[in-house]
Amino acid sequence: MPDPLVSIEGVGKSFGANRVLKEVSLSVGKGEVVTLIGPSGCGKTTLLRCVNVLETYDSGLITIDGETVGIRLDTAGTRRRRPDHEIAAMRARVGMVFQSYNLFPHLTVLENLTVAPVRVRGLPAAQARDKALALLERVGLADKAGQYPATLSGGQQQRVAIARTLAMEPSLILLDEVTSALDPELVGEVLDVVQSLAADGMTMMIVTHEMQFAREVSSRVAFMAAGEILELAPPADLFGDPKNDRLRAFLGRYRAAHRI
Amino acid sequence: MNLASLRYLGIGAGTTIGLAAAVIVLGAVVGMLLATARLYAWPPIGKLAEGYALVIRGVPLLILLIGAYFSLPYLGMDMPLYAVVILVMGLYFGAYMGEVFRGAIASVPRTQWDAGRSVGFRWLQVFGIVILPQARRLCVAPFLNVALTVVKNTSLVSAIGGWELVAAGREIGERTGDLLAVYLAIAAVYFAICFPLARLATFIERRSHA
Predict the structure, then answer these.
(1) Which of A233, B76, B85, B173 could form a disulfide with A238 if both were Cys (CB 3.0 to 4.6 A apart)?
(2) How crowded is the C-beta side of A149, counted as CA atoms within 13 Å?
(3) Which sign does the torsion angle of CA A128, A134, A139, A144 carry?
(4) B120–A54 CB contact, under 8 Å
């Protein structure tokens, strides 16, 4: 396996009495695409959010590039939440794309792409602008630069969201069900962009319900249920020869629902 | 009414507008503090802000004005009348504006926080760059409505001996004996000040739904 970029070791998390993550361990190598699949409520989105410290985790440790995520262990081994600016600095290197796009509605498409590089990275405005236009070109939306997000279709908004993430030149991108809110005919255009990122060697963690896409884009696929990873394998093995009973049942239900 | 009377009324109107502007500015500052305290401060501070708003909104402004103006000297604070008026009304309408701001900030979706944080903004940056501009859009119309109330309520100042539009009109009325014409004129001036504000509020409200 290539050098691990993300290492998740024994991560646990509860919402009250509900244990949503139970000792989850997973590592993601540089340039790898790891996809998390599983039934709703299995903890895959929570795990992704923990990697970006949008959720805290109660036990275990996540590291990115050797740096502990969200917390710091002092000499006595006590977990201490990192200060706001350290967490922000780490998030600046980790991109995240959300199910509901979450573009900034009060900013134009172009401003959505330039605001963080300028305000966080300190990039000169002209440079940020050039880069943003190049990225919009890449996702096929250069002509929408001056428009507001509300005027775009869902698929276009999601492509802008991906471009916004790329503008920060992240070393890791987290994609949380990025096609779940889209009309079926718009799913393809977004997945094409994600596929091209994978081809460029971008390290990604993807939560998705699109099994065909997971099969095509992933280096490895993790099947989660009830807060645990039950099977982790390259897509050909996981989809072609599933070992775990719950995974087999899950895939069976999926195929029946999608008639494939 | 002759020209001199109209000019006198004009000076009264100017005083009313100046007073209202000062109260609106102070009220906005107080309101912003109350809103942030209730949304983000250490919970006991938030509760305090909530309690303040509840009490203030349950007491008539006139009572507060009279109470403050006539009791502050006993507390060793001998402030000029207009200073007392601006302070009391600013604190009073600050409670209302606090509700307006809090509502607007709270109605920006939580997911905008996620988005702001995920691109690497620090807390204050998310608040200032992502949340506040969206909240500002939402609160312009209700804020203008409070501003209207401020303009009209400056007339209470004459109850504690202050001078503004209503007091100016009363003087003219007593001099000329034509009370009806004077009070109609006063009403017209208030309307002239408030109507554009009300239209602006409706305009912005309509546009923000589009």
Answers:
(1) A233
(2) 19
(3) positive
(4) no
Secondary structure element (H or E) that encloses residue A5, with its range: strand A4-15
Over range B50-79, report the average pLDDT.
Answer: 90
Crossing angle of helices B132-153 and B179-209, in 10° steps, is: 170
Q: What does the mean pLDDT of chain A come to?
A: 94
Q: What residues in A contact B122, CB-CB < 8 Å? A: 84-85, 88
CB contact under 8 A, B111 and A168: no
What ipTM does the predicted assembly reach?
A: 0.92
**CA neighbours within 13 Å on the CB side: how many for A57?**
32
Record: contact A115-B133, CB cut-off 8 A: no
> Looking at CA atoms only, how far is residue A222 from chain B in angstroms?
24
CB contact under 8 A, A104 and B112: yes
Contact A92 B120 (CB under 8 A): yes
Assign A198 a pLDDT band (cuts: 50, 70, 90): very high
> From the centroid of its chain, how far is CA A149?
21
Q: Does A105 touch chain B (CB under 8 A)?
A: yes
Mean pLDDT over B1-13 rounds to 87
Tokens of A192: 């094409």
The pLDDT, as a whole number, for residue B160 is 87
pLDDT one-digit tens code per residue, A134-181: 999 999 999 999 999 999 999 999 999 999 999 999 999 999 999 988
A90 to chain B: nearest residue by CA? B120
Assess contact for B18 and B162: CB atoms under 8 A. no
